Amino acid sequence: MFLSFTMSGLFAGTSLERPVTCERCGKVLDECACPRSASGAVCGPKDQSPRVRREKRRGKWCTVVAGLDADATDLKALLKALRTGLGTGGGITDGELILQGDHRDAVVARLCEMGYRAKPAGG
What we know:
Elements: E1 51-57, E2 60-66, H1 75-86, E3 90-93, E4 96-100, H2 104-113, E5 119-120
Parallel strand pairs: 1-5
Antiparallel strand pairs: 1-2, 2-4, 3-4
């Protein structure tokens, strides 16, 4: 007979057993709502450094935000905040935020206000 069990934390199955908690909020991992990367590490805005560049697509200027962790960031909510703040359209393609128009400096400023370490890229 083969017994299999998983250890949830240090001292599992003893009177000293304590649930594994989040290092950021202190809640049990099942109840924690902190943003996490694909590897499971806590990944907040200050831990990400997106690059903001401008490109010409189909003859028009657009602003591209790349380098955000899609697992730790709500890209849809971030895109909506940028679109409404700048009064422009945009979308998400291949994990990059694309905004219509040349708004590179304004996007960098808004991302820095939100806590990201954003930097302009390109010329």
